Amino acid sequence: MKTAIEKETEKLAGLKLRYLGRASNLLWLGFGDLIDVVRRGETEELAEFALHVQCAWRITKASTIYVGSHDFYVPSSKWEGDMEDFYWDIQGNNRFDERVQWLMRSIKSDLVVENIEADTFGSLTVYLSNDYTLEIFPNSSVTGDYSESWRLFRSGDDSPHFVVSGHRIEKFD
Questions:
Q1: Which residues contact 142 (CB under 8 A, 6 or more apart)?
Q2: 25 pLDDT exceeds 90?
Q3: H/E segment holding residue 28
């Protein structure tokens, strides 16, 4: 598994991290040149490669975690209500939304993928310039159809998605 993941993800080496965000609790990142992609009849400018993460992850620098997957479920620093009134899935409500916005503003230069390492459990460590690191680590023993940890694919392309899930690798069209 380690070798297959490293071989597939090596195409990200040298590419810029263009953006990151979320759809519900799925982390999405875009790497590479920006290209025009037609989806649902609309033209969008997307990064050449997309990485979607549905397991535990964090972005670090030195000894600091700047943002992590649990931040989806924590109120932003501006939250003044009671916890029972907190809805994490509303854009802008949670700590993830706040930290990512701050992180992207504070990075003065583009982050570039310098190196990638994987392990036999499907974990992926993406070393970025300026000493930032993206760590993705599957943290579930669940296997089967609903066990996807992360996927890498080319935006606007019909090539198969490279999917790491439930202790295995699959390619989906």
A1: 166
A2: yes
A3: strand 26-39
Question: What is the model's pLDDT at position 106?
Answer: 79
Cα–Cα distance, 76 to 95 (Å, whole number):
4
Q: Is 24 left (phi over 0), alpha (psi -120 to 50) or beta?
A: left
Beta-bridge partner residues of 134: 59, 126
CB 20 within 8 A of CB 136: no
Pull the structure tokens for residue 4: 């297959």
CA 21 to chain centre: 8
CA distance 50 to 161: 10
Indicate whether this model's pTM tops 0.85: yes
Distances (CA, A) of 38 to 46, 86, 114, 157: 10, 36, 30, 10
